[in-house]
């Protein structure tokens, strides 16, 4: 017999999935606003952020109702508290999209600077992919998929460091580009933060799978070390 | 009669408090490493981050045990899930302390740049205060204290914007300071992130107090708007 709690958990996951799509869209639009020099598109990202925030509150409320009503044990409980944590991560990714959109509006007021297009397209792709992959890994409780995300995060860190170095060098030689250069560094940093948040989700999925063993291991280390 | 669950909740809160002290100390040491040009102190912050991470795992585990064992309803349940969320926020503040320490090590390799000392001392003070205040507001369920934090966050945003503008201007005139200037901008940004995380905690405290009314209000808005 199918448990009623399973239907409710599915509803919770569906909402989380929709929230994830919204965040992914916000990121894609913020970056498209950069590539297409389209500040209206950036403005639209700012306006729609409230929708992401409302999802967080809705999911938070539903999650608490589920715990109170069904008093789930072990795995179901952890699924729900993880969902609450992930909505928080998604909401913060949405904030990063807003930060990017704000910087894009500044950049679009200045003459175009083509030299970093390729790196930023790559970063945007990796970030979007990581958001999608981390949510899928959670939905499918697939810790192999989750491990791939940790590798993607290394790729992202590498590009971010490179972009930082390149723009630092460029600004040393062309200080007149300071406004655009600083804004690009902040956008690169924002994308790297999105990747970090997706990595948090992936780590939770791995943790959920390995569960007790890992925790005992850590507890032992803590008792020995601190 | 005192409930056993109250003892357990107190234990949870004590751990959270200790974790908060560690994070505050990490921030203070990272900023002292900047003011005193002491890279050994910055290195020590990097080394001790693992302690903060271990607290997060311990509190997370204890929180889940409490929910599974006592099946707490309404307010107690929300206190526990909020504690889990706050440990996550604290862990991220710890990461910001690490980011600051890394930039301090870069800055200390370059000639000193005195001009922004005052703003950074102010930001460091406000950030530390906000971490402390937000935890106290949570411990005492004091939503008046929580509201003060929202004002402190506005102060922080103001200083951060000012620092960003000033360093941008300085770098336009003195591009030779690019390495130090960019690192200072990132530190300012990190401190502003700490303030944001403390503000999240404060918002949760206000939300816990106002509870159902706010949520209904938001749900109505959502049904009308989206």
From the structure above, extract its key features.
Methane Monooxygenase Hydroxylase, Chain G, domain 1; homodimer; mainly alpha
Write the layout of secondary structure elements.
The structure is a homodimer of 226-residue chains.
Chain A: H1 4-35, H2 39-70, H3 74-107, H4 117-139, H5 143-173, H6 178-210, H7 212-225
Helix pairs in contact in A: 1-2, 1-3, 1-4, 2-3, 3-6, 4-5, 4-6, 5-6
Please provide a brief summary of the model.
2 copies of one chain form a homodimer. Chain A is mainly alpha-helical.
The domain tally of chain A reads 1
- CATH homologous superfamily title of chain A: Phosphate transport system protein phou homolog 2, domain 2
Q: N-to-C SSE series of chain A? A: HHHHHHH
Calculate the mean pLDDT score of chain A and round it: 88
The proportion of residues in beta strands of chain A is: under 5%
Helical segment count of chain A: 7
**Overall strand count of chain A:** 0
Oligomer: homodimer
| Radius of gyration of chain A from CA coordinates | 20 Å
Shape of chain A: elongated
Please tell me about this protein's structure.
The structure is a homodimer of 226-residue chains. Chain A has 226 residues and is an all-alpha fold. Chain A has a single domain, classed as Phosphate transport system protein phou homolog 2, domain 2 (Methane Monooxygenase Hydroxylase, Chain G, domain 1, Up-down Bundle). Helices cover 88% and strands 0% of the residues of chain A. Chain A is built from seven helices and no strands. In chain A, helix 3 packs antiparallel against helix 6. The first copy, chain A, is elongated. The model of chain A is unreliable at 212-226 (pLDDT under 50). Chains A and B meet through helix 2, helix 3, helix 5, helix 6 and helix 7 of A and helix 2, helix 3, helix 5, helix 6 and helix 7 of B.
């Amino acid at each position: 017999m199918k448990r009623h709690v399973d239907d409710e958990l599915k509803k919770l996951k569906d909402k989380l999935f929709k929230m994830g799509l919204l965040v992914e869209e916000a990121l894609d639009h913020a970056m498209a606003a950069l590539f297409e020099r389209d500040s209206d598109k950036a403005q639209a990202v700012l306006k729609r952020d409230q929708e992401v925030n409302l999802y967080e509150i809705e999911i938070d409320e539903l999650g608490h109702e589920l715990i109170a009503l069904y008093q789930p044990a072990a795995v179901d409980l952890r699924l729900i508290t993880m969902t609450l944590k992930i909505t928080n991560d998604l909401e913060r990714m949405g904030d990063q999209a807003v930060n990017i959109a704000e910087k894009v509006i500044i950049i679009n007021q200045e003459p175009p600077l083509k030299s970093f297009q390729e790196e930023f397209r790559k970063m945007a792709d990796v970030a979007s992919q990581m958001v999608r992959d981390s949510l899928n890994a959670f939905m499918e409780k697939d810790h192999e998929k989750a491990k791939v995300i940790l590798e993607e995060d290394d790729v992202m860190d590498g590009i971010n460091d490179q972009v930082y170095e390149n723009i630092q060098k460029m600004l040393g030689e062309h200080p007149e580009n300071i406004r655009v250069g600083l804004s690009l560094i902040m956008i690169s940093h924002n994308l790297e933060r999105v990747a970090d948040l997706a990595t948090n989700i992936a780590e939770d999925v791995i943790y959920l799978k390995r569960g007790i063993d890992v925790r005992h291991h850590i507890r032992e280390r803590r008792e020995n070390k601190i």
